[in-house]
Design a protein that fits this description.
By secondary structure, the chain is of the alpha/beta class. It has 19 helices and 16 strands. The radius of gyration is 22 Å and the shape is globular. About 4% of the residues have low confidence. The structure holds adenosine-5'-diphosphate and magnesium ion.
């Protein structure tokens, strides 16, 4: 069950670093220039794209990749200080961007978080709560009003934002993760700037609000929007107008804003990091997606839905025992739907398709040191955790005939992480 990622990077050393980082989990292909890249676009699920290539600008590849696979995950790599290129890339349909020097862990993380987009074609909603949410989404989709989607990580905020967009009759969908924008550049990215309005502003540029005219601008992690820009966004929401940096003339856009956050904005307001008036304005249509454990009726339908995809990718049947299903219904799922899907991927891979409760148990959120998993399911002592981690690694190694790279893949950790863990555990 591997996605294909095409890495387009002319610096061969960097390209192989990227390949090393991603190669554990994905099938990676390399292209060193545009011409090679164009020939490799067929069948890719992800694209890691350097923008400066010897035979032209990487930007030109984005549209072609989108045409071939509309849900392709496209991450562009921009040189420091060329954030405007990132804006262009997002306008053309890139999913996200990373600045050089690229943090490899962050790169892997970004793909992991974004690949779910591959599966957004259908949204599962069986529980009464989700049915109600979809009804609400259907009602608000075609209006110009902003929507604020809240919910824990992995509950499906991205999926819902895209669902609303798809039912809005609007053209473009442009997404911006507010957490990944350097503060000092956020203004120009969103609202654009005039030539000479700050050092480095060599040309006048339009921002994402302008690019999203006639479409949707999805502001993910809105809680991270710099406080200084919040009044500007508020003004846009109120009037459809905004002032690009350095301009004395207002611009207009009819872009529809969908915002999402897993933060408690009420708390952020109390702490002074989020403006009350902006919250009020965004939350005309608040949609809260409850955690998965609060809507257990969705669990089995989600399982069935995902298993179908796993079967396609693995090319063989996958089935769950009744006790495995019971266990899933009991489990707390701190990582919500994302965790459920990851869990199914791992166990399907390791068991060859016969998922039992004991195979699931060995995978249920083994807490890592840096990120303890909340909930009572794993409230055992640290010693127990280490033991469980050891069992997990042993199981993965046994299942892969001792092949560490394959075991790391099955465990969905990087090769390096596995080696570190093994060293720590004395394996
Ligand atoms: N209702 C749903 N139906 C189908 N898949 C879902 C649903 N909710 C979440 N998912 C899947 O769960 C994963 C996480 O969803 P995502 O929208 O990225 O969550 P969030 O943005 O809230 O962190 C993705 O794989 C997504 O496709
Ligand atoms: Mg998200």
């Amino acid at each position: 069950m591997k996605y294909n990622i095409l890495i387009v990077e002319d610096n061969k050393k960097l390209a192989s670093l990227f390949q090393e980082a991603l190669g554990d989990e994905y099938d990676t292909h390399l292209a060193f220039n545009l011409k090679q890249a164009k020939a490799c676009l067929d069948g890719i699920h992800g694209l890691l794209l350097d923008l400066q290539l010897p035979d032209g600008e990487g930007l030109s590849l984005i549209e072609s990749a989108r045409q071939i696979n509309p849900s392709c995950v496209i991450i562009v790599v921009t040189a420091y200080g060329t954030i405007q290129k990132a804006v262009e890339a997002l306008k053309l349909g890139a999913t996200d961007f990373l600045e050089k020097p690229v943090d490899l862990e962050a790169l892997v993380q970004r793909f992991q978080n974004l690949f779910p987009l591959q599966g957004i074609k259908d949204l599962v909603a069986e529980s009464a709560k989700m049915v109600e949410i979809l009804q609400m989404a259907d009602r608000v989709a075609s209006t110009p009003f902003p929507v604020l989607i809240t919910g824990e990580t992995g509950t499906g905020k991205d999926v819902l934002a895209r669902y609303i967009h798809q039912h809005s009759g609007r053209k473009k969908f442009i997404g911006l993760n507010c957490a990944s924008v350097p503060q000092e550049l956020a203004d120009s990215m969103l609202f654009g700037h005039l030539k000479g309005s700050f050092t480095g502003a060599i040309e006048t540029r339009k921002g994402l609000l302008s690019a999203a005219k006639g479409g949707t601008l999805f502001l993910d992690e809105i809680g991270e929007l710099p406080l200084s820009l919040q009044p500007k966004l508020l003004r846009f929401l109120d009037s459809g107008c905004y002032l690009p940096l350095g301009s004395s003339q207002e611009s207009k856009s009819d872009a529809r804003i969908i915002a999402a956050t897993n933060k408690d904005l009420e708390k952020a307001i109390k702490e002074g990091s989020f403006r009350k008036d902006l919250h009020f304005r965004l939350a005309i249509f608040p949609i809260h997606i409850p955690s998965l454990s609060e809507r257990k009726d969705d669990i089995i339908p989600l399982v069935n839905h995902h298993i179908e995809r796993v079967e396609q990718l693995l090319g063989r049947r996958v089935c769950l025992s009744d006790s495995a299903k019971e266990l899933l219904l009991e489990y707390h799922f701190p990582g919500n739907v994302r965790e459920l899907f990851n869990l199914l991927d791992r166990t399907a891979l390791l068991t060859g398709g016969n998922i039992t409760d004991s195979s699931l148990r060995s995978f249920l959120s083994p807490p890592s040191e840096d990120e303890p998993v909340p909930g009572d399911f794993w409230s055992e002592s640290r010693g127990h955790v280490l033991k469980r981690e050891k069992e997990l690694i042993d199981a993965a190694l046994a299942a892969t005939g001792g092949n560490k790279a394959a075991a790391a893949r099955a465990l969905k950790v990087s090769y390096k992480t596995l080696l570190n863990k093994m060293k720590k555990l004395g394996l």
